[in-house]
Design brief:
The structure is a homotetramer.
Chain A (H helix, E strand, L loop, with lengths): L3 H8 L5 H8 L6 H6 L2 E5 L3 E7 L13 H20 L3 E10 L7 E12 L2 E9 L5 E11 L19
């Protein structure tokens, strides 16, 4: 077992370590929140816009943003839209993503909105754009609004109020 | 702008920093590869099993694995299965995830397989289980096998040979 | 407005009219039930198998079964599996289909099963095979179990107990 | 084996037989085209609108339009949009539908558009509305443009130029 100083020495060998340090220095409650560092804007009509800077930490080994990261961004934006619409945390029931173009450039912009709210099931959509305004994924999602204090057993691991 | 020593001091305030240091000390070419640290096993019939330890860095603020992370794991496992079946890198065209139970416990186990290979389009499925063997998500995905040297413009950001 | 005898004369000009007459002569409560004429078998583990003969009435103009028909078959089989698991009618929340091969041959066989039941949300999967045992679509679906007497407002048009 | 006159006598017992006769009297090349009788309008930007009257033949046994029928309508509209965009027939690779409200009223209106065209893969979306302008499903789909004369083996059973 390496001690912390040895680990730090190893870690510094990675080209992405300085960026990782910046991320870790952020005051977000979760690591993923620090990694994504989403800038959230709520619009009218239960719409949400999230801007997120692209860093090399989000790359797959083709040096483009990993598709799972873009999916996570869309899930987060839709979960926030669902929360905004229902006033309650919700969990993802289903998520579908179509990949259109590689995630490249300076930032990603996710625009999510609520399509329908029927009882406890909230249906949403989200487009994610690159910094040239081109769509890179389209996503749809269904969410289930939790009752106060409801245990999430039997449901998704994503909460609408604080997915990151 | 903080210098590296100041950043390091800030970063150490995070409860998940020691774990982050362990991750960064790994010899994976990408940060996401180091974060997920997948243990990959190829089975017969173009099937792939990936085991991944759950750490607090993968949590959302409900202290369960973020649904986007589980989706990323499934996408990665299916991409590897597609690569194994076609012998070529491929990009994700579409991904659908159904969330069944929260991501909790010591590890996640993704089992992906190729359902059909038709020309350049490869269709896959993946179940992800918790360490008690319960299914927590089911996923399906379609992938597009790249020609040698093909630019990924117009397609997904996920490559089957090295998604992490 | 043509009277019934004139309509009948026109209708007889269609090559598929004799088959249509056979379908209409069936004692199914709905037209779609008569058209599909599904042979349903319930298996253990909340699984359902539906066999359906392929007729020219199910063709698109390429002379293969229309993809929407195959999707309807899968939705029906999954709805029945959900009903079998929950004992209550349910409505489809989301449906995803991956198309693998054209619908050709003498019959289609849909095999659906319940993957998870969490509260009122039931998650299912279904593979549809041709008469050579080759998979032609894979589908996944989520269903929402209705309370007794619940109005379906805000939900899907598909009922698990009697989708056809 | 019943002869045609006996079948006709049986068929007339069905409450939906007069409507079926009207459908069969239409001059559409396929039965499904006659059943749906879609009124297609091409808009700018590779968008397509299809209007379709609701008849009792499209009902499930809850007396609302079967969810598979609505999915078929959306698949057809997206296939036509893909055809319009690429100038070539295409087959459905994947289809996802979220069900929001039951299919009720006088007609359904599907509005489909092309989101992205990348090489031979065309990504689309479609909303279907009731006659009060309320959205009842949202759908997304990916299509694969065929080469001239390409056999559809290994692909879907849906063709973009003539799905009905």
């Amino acid at each position: 077992m390496l001690d912390e100083e040895q680990l730090l020495k190893e870690a510094r060998n990675n080209p992405w370590f300085p960026e990782l340090l910046k991320i870790a220095a952020r005051r977000r409650p979760t690591f993923l929140g620090s990694l994504f560092d989403p800038q959230v804007e709520y619009l009218a009509n239960d719409s949400v816009v999230i801007r997120m800077k692209i860093t090399e930490l989000l790359y797959n080994n083709l040096q483009i943003v990993h598709g799972g990261i873009t999916a996570t961004l869309a899930d987060t934006a839709m979960g926030l839209a669902a929360y905004h619409a229902s006033g309650r945390p919700s969990v993802t029931l289903s998520l579908t993503v179509n990949y259109l173009q590689p995630g490249l450039g300076k930032e990603l912009v996710a625009k999510a909105s609520v399509v329908h709210r029927g009882g406890r099931v909230i249906t949403t959509r989200c487009d994610v754009f690159n910094d040239e305004g081109e769509i890179i994924i389209q996503a749809t999602g269904t969410f289930y609004a939790l009752k106060e204090g409801q245990i999430t057993d039997g449901l998704s691991s994503t909460s609408g109020d604080a997915t990151l």
